[in-house]
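Quarterly update from the structural biology core.
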Amino acid sequence: MTEMMQAVLALLVIMFNAISLRADVFTRNNKGITDLTSIVIPVSSTQVILVTNKITEIPAGYFEGLPLLEKIGLKENKISHVAEHAFSQVPSLTYIGLNENELQAITKNMLTGN
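Predicted structure, tokenized:
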């Protein structure tokens, strides 16, 4: 009976609920992550949210190869270093949230790669 019901279902509408089936938002909040290079982000991601972890640095080119990425949220980490050109190969990027970290300085090259 269950198999038959699964085959018949053609559409599930969940609008105006508190659930999201969006595969383009990659979230790993409060997971104790210390090293970004240990994470593989799906290429289809439009948002990467890594809030309240223990990430200490953003390496150069880490977000390269994510052409649809628009938003990066890294609030409440331990980031003290952002490599030169860290965000230079992210053409759709419009928002970077680095609040509540341990940054001492930000340079133009970190953000634009110029």
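The beta strands are 25-27, 47-49, 57-58, 71-73, 81-82, 95-97.
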